[in-house]
Design goal:
Layout lengths: L4 E2 L8 E8 L5 E8 L14 H9 L11 E7 L4 E7 L4 E5 L2 E2 L5 E2 L15 E11 L4 E3 L10 E6 L12 E5 L5 E7 L10 E10 L3
Antiparallel strand pairs: 1-2, 2-3, 4-5, 5-6, 7-8, 9-14, 10-13, 11-14, 12-13
Amino acid sequence: MAFLQQTDPVAGQPVTVTLPYLDQNGTLQMGQIKVAPGKDAVLPDNILTSDEIQNYVLGNLGSGDTDQKAVGVHWNGYADTPMMVVGSLPDQKYSSLLGTNQNGLYLTNFGNIIPEMPAQSRMMLQTFTATGVQDGNTITFPQAFTSDDVKVFITPKTPSATGSWSPPICGCNNINRYGFGLTRFFTDGTPKTSVGDISILAIGKIGA
């Protein structure tokens, strides 16, 4: 016999509890008492169940059939990056984690260092190639910046029309958030109307 018994609880109804006791003669008796009903049982929205805790700790939470569990996390001293080991012990794969290295420099998901650009707003770098352009052309950025304060760096890729490797001197004017005007001048006498390709690096604000 269980030491303490009770009827199945029903919301809003009292529960009958049966418990043993000794009477004045020392005889074991069974008595019943009524326990007043309480509030209906309501689980909070943010409760974490034991199976959820287990899946979270094991790295299974939200995983699918083809997903691989993480084996462990460690600091890669050679690359100075935090790293996660995934897969299994016989078949290990590595992935660098986002974060900082020991010098506090930000890292990409490949473990490369992100350069710092001191500014009051977010900055964007755009690199692209303009093909078949000549002096006086307007070069449009692939994506417009949010300010006209844009820095442009140009590298010529095509030699002069004479066939000798005498790249033009390239410059820019009328720079704004949408693009700039191109200037090209050849030192070997090639007409500046000669077309060619240029590589461009543009740095400007993106955001307020």
